[in-house]
Each structure stands twice: as C-alpha cells, then as structure tokens.
Amino acid sequence: MAILEREALIHYLDVLGANSTNPSFTHKKITDVTTSSASTWEVIGDDIEEMSVELNTDTSQFKNILGQTKVKDNGYTPSISAEPFYADPASDLYKILRDIALDRKKNDDCRALMLEVLVEDTTATTHLAYVSEVVVKPTSYGGNATDGVNIPFTIMENGDRVKGSVTLTGDRASNYVPTFTKA
Amino acid sequence: MSEEVVYDVEGYEAITEALRELLNQFPALQYDDISFASMDAESGISMLPTSGAVVKSERTSIIGKVRRVCQYPFTVTYRGMGLSEDRRASVKEWLDALGRWLEGEVVTVNGTQCQLSQYPALSGDRRIISIDRSTPTYLEAVNQNQSEDWTIYMVLKYKYEFQRTRINM
C-alpha cells in the first residue's frame, strides 16, 4: 500500500498584488480566478513541519420523538493554522502579511483566495484542486532570537469553494507553478 | 541503545576550507599561520577537526524542504618549547582571545579593539550559525621533547538546507 507523502497535499495563497505600493491580496472572489488575470500562487509551508485543515465540524446528536438517535449536521467551518512563517523579504506572502499585521488591516484587506492541490499521481497531467475564498489573519509577530521574525497566520474559509484541476510545472511542491481550471 | 551518527561529508569539506581561512584572519595572528592538522615538533599553531561534521537535528517541512543543524567540533593547538611561566600565560590568553573573537566578542589586540563582523559565506545552502568554545584553553600535552601543547576545543554550528529527493509519492 502506497501512502501519499505529506508533500502531495499543497496549499497556496494568491499573492498577486504583493508588489504594488500597497501590498495586498488582489483576488478575493473565485470569479477573479476563473475570468480575470492569472493568479500568482505562493506555496505555504516552507518552514512548517505539520499543518492540517481543521474542518471544525458542527454536529449535534439528539433523540427524535420515535426514540431514535439522529445527528443534526451543520457542516464545517474550516480553518488552517500556518505556523511558523518566518519573515523573508523576498516572499510576496510576507509583504502582504507584514502589512496586514503592522497596519492592523481588517475585513476586505484580509480576504484572499486559497488553492488546495492534491497530487495523487506525479505522472498525471492534471491534479485535483479546489479554490476557496478565505480570510487570512496573522495571529502574532515576533519570535525568538534563534529562528528569526515569525508571523504565524490563520486561514479561514469565507465564502465559495469550487472544484477544478491544476496543471503543474516544476518538479516539487516547493517549486510547482500551478494553473487552475474550474471543473 | 546508541543513536546513529549521521555525517555531512560535503559539509565537512566546505567548513574546513572556510574555517582555515577564517582562523588565519585572527587579528592577533602576527607571524605564524594556523596550519591544518600539522605542526613542527617544537612549535606551531594548528587547527584539527575532532570528528566529521555531524548532523545534530533535522526537520522536514510539509513541502519537502530539509533543514539540518550540524556541528563541526575542532581544536586549535599552540605548541611551544621552553615556555616560561609568563609565556604560558600569554599563550593561554592568546588562545582564549581567539575563542572569544570566533564567538563574536570584542577582543583587544595591541590596544585596538577587534570584532568579527560576520562568519564567512559557505558554498551551496550551508550557513554558519555560531562558533563557541567547549573548553577554556588548557595544557593538553607535554611531549617527549618537552614541547607543550596548549589547546582550546570549539564547536562550529551551521545550517544546511536542501530539497530531499522524492522516493515515492
């Protein structure tokens, strides 16, 4: 049995707009990805040893009048805690996170698009992918003297999510360049 | 059960070269060079790695990037013949000053304050983090010809980052 390596599940944030005078997330709606200019996806996890999508299921059990146990399923409120994220001035994501954190930006300034890719077969030409509307919030900034400035952040789903596929150029999760197509 | 020791073979070569160059930039080094693993029977200063470059910790990121912290322990030995008490004290002081200088402290050489501004760059994705003394200078040996070896033990730590080859996915 072959188990997928962790490297097979890759998360990106669209950092188009990072190099403007006011570094910010440019694409905020899924329609931006599917109809307008190409996205610039930056991979998350360069410094991270463990990261999961927390689905935060919202369910409750109850008994109906027939005495049967039932589940009320209110779905999910997914989020990701990305930690650590060490400040690298060459990173576009760093520029945006820096400005959100230091300028105390909120609401629309924190809205972004996240691309989730699952590479089940490295020889395939396309791979399963989803784009989600999200909110990105740095949770702190600082850190210790040894590791450098750390800006951990949280990604929270905030709106639509569409299924599609990506083609990847490059040979590793660290250097893939994905192109998303809606299903 | 003893832990398996992993060596960074290429790192050993890169560090040795850079460290030899760095040691010979010590401002208090006036007439002699610090040689590598060789000394005259009566006098000299020599640097000697005490083992290979050993991997102390390794972390792999979720996108497959490996970050290692490695250690390169080494000694610097000052050999002298017929050392007077004062000369012994100054040899010890000299080696301790070398240690402090490599650690990044300010040392005074001939009345001038000196401080190492940065560690040398290494080839590839290796970067020196620190050099620290493991011991103060001490008399390690009195040889058959009565020459004395005064030695300081130090450890150089460096980071090494690389992308691990994907075996299967």
Which SSEs are present, and which pair or pack?
The complex is a heterodimer of chains A (183) and B (169).
Chain A: E1 9-14, H1 30-35, E2 41-43, E3 53-54, E4 57-63, E5 69-76, E6 79-82, H2 92-102, E7 111-118, E8 127-138, E9 153-169, E10 177-182
Antiparallel strand pairs in A: 1-2, 1-7, 3-6, 4-5, 6-9, 7-8, 8-9, 9-10
Chain B: H1 9-23, E1 34-36, E2 44-49, E3 54-60, E4 65-80, H2 85-103, E5 107-109, E6 112-114, E7 126-133, E8 138-142, E9 148-163
Parallel strand pairs in B: 1-2
Antiparallel strand pairs in B: 2-4, 3-4, 4-9, 5-6, 7-9, 8-9
Helix content of chain B: 10-25%
Strand % of chain A is 35-45%
- Cα-atom Rg of chain B, whole angstroms? 18 Å
What is the average of the pLDDT values of chain A? Answer: 93
General shape of chain B: elongated
Number of domains of chain A: 1
Helices and strands of chain B, in order, run as HEEEEHEEEEE
Biggest beta-sheet profile of chain B: 7 strands, mixed
- The total strand number of chain A stands at 10
Q: Outline of chain A, from the CA principal axes?
A: globular
**Strand runs of chain B, count:** 9
Q: What name does the CATH topology of chain B carry?
A: STM4215-like
